[in-house]
Amino acid sequence: MNVGFLGTGNMGGAIIRALAGTRGFTLYGLNQTRGKLLKLAEETGLVPCRSVQELTEKSDFIVLAVKPQQVQGIWPEMVPALTREKCLVSIAAGLTLESLQNSIRNICPVIRAMPNTPVLIQEGVTAICQDDETLTEQQKAFVQRMFQSLGDVHVLTEDQLDVFTALIGSGPAFIFYLIETMIESGVELGLHRDVASPMVKKLFAGASRMAETSAEHVSMLKEMAIAPAGTTIAALTHFDRTAVRGNIMDAVRKAYERSRELG
């Protein structure tokens, strides 16, 4: 399969690095910054292209990995080079299936994919929308396999993508916010930052791994850390009295509503 990447920045580059060296793939790329493209080509074996048309003509799958505001300049070159056998895979946020299909005049099938930032270390979660009825089973399977090299993949309908965006797409920033806050708490209470930081990071890594591998529900894992009249229950009851759970749920809903507005 020939896979072309329009945009080889963080997300596009992560997918390219994950696929580099895999048998059966020839990777093509185009990026506004030519120097970065050539460096990535040297690192991964990617074949650099000079134009959108050239990349489209050479690729069976075209991965749209540019910012949404950049796509309007791409269609005039891409559309004449498309054929019904090709497949457009968009990871550009906010572009609906309908808008993408209209932009390429329904010439070829379209898949929407939404990876979150931990794909950069191949520990990501990606949602894939395969609602386009013209997709073949081979195309569906290929795109799923492509993103499985970056972490977990979940096939969702398009009306579920806004929830995914709010919960999983925005989620890493929520976790980093909590990590930062707990580090600051340690510093406030007397730990040096270079001591608090690795401890808190390991705390999150260990607790996440425990939640992922344990057969117990996360509520039971939480209970394991609670002793009567102890330090943990003192903190957790403060969370409940100040509606921390409700505030987190409200924050996710705010992200969800904003995702719908952008779409």
Structure keywords:
eight-stranded mixed β-sheet, 12 helices, elongated, alpha/beta, ProC C-terminal domain-like fold, 263 residues, Rossmann fold, 2 domains
What is the number of helical segments per DSSP (H or I, 4+ residues)?
Answer: 12
Name of the CATH superfamily of the largest domain: NAD(P)-binding Rossmann-like Domain
Largest sheet: 8 strands, mixed
Residue-averaged pLDDT? 94
Instruction: Tell me how many strands there are.
Output: 8
Please provide a written account of the structure.
Helix 2 links the parallel strand 2 and strand 3. The mean pLDDT is 94. The protein has 263 residues and is α/β, with parallel strands linked by helices. The longest helix has 21 residues. The two termini are 31 Å apart. The radius of gyration is 22 Å and the shape is elongated. Helix content is 52%, strand content 14%. Strands 3-2-1-4-5-6-7-8 form an eight-stranded mixed β-sheet, sandwiched between helices. The protein has two domains: 161 residues, NAD(P)-binding Rossmann-like Domain (Rossmann fold); 94 residues, Orthogonal Bundle (ProC C-terminal domain-like fold), CATH 1.10.3730.10. The relative contact order is 0.09. It is built from twelve helices and eight strands.
In short:
This protein has 263 residues and is of the alpha/beta class.
